[in-house]
Design a protein that fits this description.
It is built from 18 helices and twelve strands. It has one domain: Cytochrome P450 (Cytochrome p450). By secondary structure, the chain is α+β, with helices and mostly antiparallel strands. α8 runs antiparallel to α10 and α12 packs across α18. The strands form four sheets. The chain has a five-stranded mixed beta sheet with strand order 1-2-8-5-3. The protein is globular.
Length: 447
């Protein structure tokens, strides 16, 4: 089979650059092939086709499960983190049924109940921050986001288990903070337990400790079922699928770990970028403050979430450096033509979110941070994919966006921050995502 626009050099060079410098890898490729190209990122004998044209992405997403399908073997890179029973790992009808169980937890009145919780956690953490000292916005956002997740998802507000989960998750995630350590997730042959001091050995032991805490919480909750509780764990434990079946302990564990890791880490990264852009560009911060002040004193969370410029600002933050660089890859199920290229069963294709968001024809001057572009134009689900698309769109997207807006608004209205220096923040691989390389160093200023 002739592959469309196959990149050179071969597997090892491509894999190395993809791990160490994914943006450089993608931007070098798009200079040669502006719409679609093939890589050897999977193995020397198996190709992965990158698609970054809206028409091609639409073809993939609207034919999900038919011509193109996501299978559990494609998502194998996530298994060490999320297990085998997470919604991310399921495919076909099992995936559809699990999404149906999860969706009500993240929409409607459930969302409104989280609004004040998010504002209160943000205010509590910032009120304890020392003034005139440099801090990492990325670390602080992870702390806020994790507390939001623990309280909204678990209904845990304090106590020994609460503190232990925070500590162990931090240890586990920090193992993959750099491109080099991220290679342990991306290269399965490195996943060897060589004892406690080996990187993978540490990860397995940290994960084991997290598992103990999660299973203990699940067991305690099953013994003391409270129909009045509205946290997501309680809702999932009482939920049933179309056949009347509830979730097993293993299924709950995998789903909870997915929500904990993907939910808090990705949201925290977006919030870090939001604080960077709102303070790196003073005119943007001023427009945000003017809009927030238009709501009067003590605005309610729902009113904040509906502000147009704030929404445009968050969308632009998600556009310019999307946390997820790629959609979940799909496998061709039957012979199909994609953008003039014939593809055959077994071929893997992926929508490249980063390159899509950098298209000059969609986003003029794409390297410039311009929230106004989202006020001037409505982008289709195949032109703006901050939370993925199709049947694999992020199940918690509404909660994530709600949290990002409320955390930023709470801080802008009540605290005065400055960047520790005015050097441009650059994106760097953190596990399988893009995060600020220097963590967005900031200072809380008196007054």
């Amino acid at each position: 089979m002739q592959l469309p626009n196959l990149l050179k050099p071969g597997f090892f060079q491509q894999k190395y650059q993809w791990i160490v410098d994914p943006i450089g890898f993608m931007e070098n490729a798009v200079q040669q092939y502006p719409d679609i190209f093939s890589t050897k990122l999977i193995s020397p004998k198996k190709s992965l086709i990158f698609v970054h044209h809206p028409q091609g992405i639409q073809e993939i997403l609207t034919n999900d499960r038919k011509k193109f399908a996501t299978t559990s073997k494609i998502n194998a890179v996530w298994e060490p983190l999320f297990g085998t029973h997470s919604v991310i790992m399921l495919d076909g009808d099992r995936h559809r049924k699990r999404r149906q169980l999860l969706m009500p937890c993240f929409h409607g009145e459930r969302m409104r109940a989280y609004g004040q919780l998010i504002c209160d956690i943000t205010d509590k953490i910032f009120s304890q921050l020392p003034t005139n000292k440099v801090f990492s916005a990325a670390e602080l956002m992870r702390e806020i986001s994790l507390q939001v997740i623990l309280q909204a998802i678990f209904g845990l507000y304090e106590g020994d288990r609460y503190e232990k989960i925070i500590h162990q998750l931090g240890l586990m995630l920090d193992l993959f903070h750099s491109p080099i350590t991220a290679s342990f997730l991306l290269l399965p042959f490195l996943q060897k337990d060589l004892g406690y001091w080996s990187p993978w050995g540490k990860f397995l032991r940290y994960r084991e400790e997290v598992d103990k805490l999660l299973y203990a919480e699940i067991a305690q909750r099953r013994e003391n079922l409270d129909p009045g509780r509205t946290d997501i764990l309680s809702l999932l434990m009482s939920a049933q699928d179309e056949e009347g079946n509830g979730m097993t302990d293993k299924e709950l564990r995998d789903e909870l770990l997915t929500l904990l890791l993907a939910g808090h880490e990705n949201t925290a990264t977006v919030m870090s970028w939001a604080f960077y852009w709102s303070h790196y560009l003073p005119e943007v911060k001023e427009k945000l403050l003017q809009e927030l002040h238009s709501l009067g004193s003590n605005p309610d969370p729902v009113s904040i979430s509906k502000l147009p410029y704030l929404s445009a600002f968050c969308n632009e933050t998600l556009r310019i450096y999307p946390v997820a660089m790629l959609n979940f890859s799909r496998e061709v199920q039957e012979p199909v033509e994609l953008m003039g290229n014939k593809l055959y069963p077994g071929t893997e294709v992926v929508g490249c979110i980063y390159l899509l968001h950098q298209r000059e024809d969609l986003y003029p001057q794409p390297k410039e941070f311009k929230p106004e572009r989202f006020l001037q134009r409505q982008f289709s689900p195949y032109e703006f994919l901050a939370f993925g698309g199709g049947t694999r769109r992020c199940v918690g997207d509404a909660l994530a966006m709600f949290e990002i807006k409320l955390v930023l608004a709470t801080v802008l209205l009540n605290y005065h921050l400055t960047l520790a220096d005015n050097k441009p923040e650059i994106p760097q691989r953190r596990a399988v995502t893009l995060a600020p390389a220097n963590g967005v160093r900031m200072i809380l200023v008196d007054g």
